[in-house]
Write a structure and sequence with these properties.
This is Serine hydrolase. The protein is α+β, with helices and mostly antiparallel strands. Helix content is 36%, strand content 17%.
């Protein structure tokens, strides 16, 4: 009996060794495959680079930095570097709105005239329209006069006044047209109902609460530890154009790290900031007046990769580009930041997500 038991234990031990060896081989193979995707773009060590993080079930399976965080000082990129994340800011603005709805301070079905009485056509534009890019408000970033204010520090009210009297592009709810102006208005409404600045509300109610200690409202003036510097490529690399960070505001003003963004994704998964009911509203694929789906919820694009639903959003701001893809059914998260607006991580992040889905489905 003891001999049989000993033999059984040996077989179990051998089985575990084989499993561990398979896992190690798999992990190494996946890392090599992800490397091969990223090094097609980020292949020069002396150029601006990127940071990518890939997680499964909330645990990192790939975390790497490429290129330079600062070309002039010859500072290598590292995974801890802080980037401007551009329009990924919209995720935080949308969740902030849902938090305030749960607190009874607003409702997504409210007309914006309730908060900004003099807003043109404000009785027919709702917070929901702003969140879903279906308001018809003209995108101020596409206005020719935008360069006239690009370096000017403006209050949210002044920024809203800059575009509010522009002719609308369509009636509310008729079309989906990605619109930064809508999220500027949302940021202003957040300030009006809380009595706090957008910056203060996001930093105190979200970043501090979640322990996102390396995330903040962007600044080119203040010292930001581990800052990645932004670049353009106009035939040669140049430092990014300087603009006032009051201009992107609630549509694109935040900075973060890939590790903090994992904390953010985990907070969404665990309902740390909003309830499951509110979360379902955030990730509903909304429709236009005629019933056509827009593939957008509140602050996230709702797409798919080979038929598997994803939640995605990217960002682009002078000197930086970002992209995050989450696969709810497999709990896979891919986040990538680039410090040159010449290198978009969007396709790379989607290709990596596709690769990880395939690997885990086959494993």
């Amino acid at each position: 009996m003891n001999i049989m038991k000993l033999e059984y234990l040996k077989q179990i031990k051998l089985f575990m060794i084989v499993i561990l060896a398979m896992q190690a081989t798999y992990s190494q193979s996946l890392e090599t495959q992800i490397d091969s995707i990223l090094t097609t773009v980020f292949k020069e060590a002396d150029e601006p680079g990127a940071v990518f993080l890939v997680t499964k079930d909330g645990k990192p399976i790939y975390r790497k930095a490429f290129g330079q965080a600062n070309i002039e000082l010859d500072v290598e990129m590292k995974p801890e570097n802080v980037f401007q994340i551009g329009s990924m800011t919209k995720q935080f603005t949308a969740i902030a709105i849902m938090m305030l709805q749960e607190q009874g301070k607003l409702n997504v079905n409210d007309a914006i005239s309730k908060y900004i009485p003099d807003y043109p056509n404000g009785n027919n534009i709702t917070i929901h329209h702003l969140l879903t890019h279906t308001s018809g408000i003209k995108d101020y970033t596409k206005m020719k006069s935008i360069m006239g204010i690009a370096k000017k520090d403006m209050s949210p009210e002044e920024l809203v006044d800059f575009f509010k009297n522009e002719p609308v592009d369509f009636k509310p709810g008729e079309k989906f047209d990605y619109c930064n102006s809508g999220y500027v208005v949302l940021g202003y409404i957040i300030e009006l109902v809380t009595g706090k600045t957008y910056e203060d509300f996001i930093e105190k109610s979200i970043f501090e609460k979640l322990g996102m200690n390396n995330s903040r409202y962007a600044s080119d003036k203040e010292i930001v530890k581990n800052r990645a510097y932004g670049y353009h490529n106009r035939g040669e690399f140049t430092n990014k154009m300087q603009v006032s960070l009051s201009i992107p505001y609630a549509s694109g003003s935040l900075m973060s790290t890939v590790d903090d963004m994992l904390k953010w994704q985990e907070a969404i998964n665990t309902n740390s900031l909003i309830t499951e009911v509110s979360k379902k509203k955030v990730f509903t694929n909304y429709t236009l007046n005629k019933g056509e789906h827009i593939n957008y919820g509140y602050g996230w694009h709702l797409k798919d990769i080979n038929g598997i639903p994803t939640r995605e959003h990217g960002g682009s701001i002078f000197g930086f580009k970002s992209m995050g893809v989450y696969v709810p059914s497999l709990d896979i998260y891919v986040i990538g930041f680039s410090n040159c607006d010449c290198n978009s991580p969007t396709k790379l992040a989607r290709d990596i997500t596709d690769l990880v889905i395939e690997n885990f489905n086959n494993y």
